[in-house]
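Example 5.3 — Molybdenum cofactor biosynthesis protein B
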Amino acid sequence: MHDGGKQFEPLNIAILTVSDTRTFAEDTSGDYLQESLLKAGHNLYERKLCTDHLYDIRAIVSQWIADKECQVVIITGGTGFYDKDITPEAVSILFDKTVDGFGEVFRQCSQNTVQLSTIQSRAVAGVANRTLIFAIPGSTGACKTAWGDILENQLDARTKPCNFVPHVRFIK
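Solution (predicted structure tokens):
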């Protein structure tokens, strides 16, 4: 539900795809997120791809949260239950605050498509240096669920009764 009195505020959103096997040419999840955020009126801050390496992930995200121009980071991949899936461990340590409800709501929404397999999703979100960080599974279907059911509205200042926009830093 949108509040007619508020204006849409485009955000600068970075996308990080975490994968040991994908290239940009095969990154349909990153493509979907990029197209969706641009269609919604946001700006693509930067898009990168890296392997499932804890310190590589952490270094990229740390660079983005240190830059006052980057307001949101969406990470796709590395949130599963396999040994190599370490995205939550890589980024959670950076959070000033954890958005516990994000993972809960994501799993609830995902249950419609992947049934009880959603229990193995370790989607997480938090705020670090007034930058929102969302880590979601790497499948395009999961990205569609995260964007369409949660992020598109929560990253829109017009969404009421509340949204994430007041929690990001704004460039003056």
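Remark. The longest helix spans residues 100-114.
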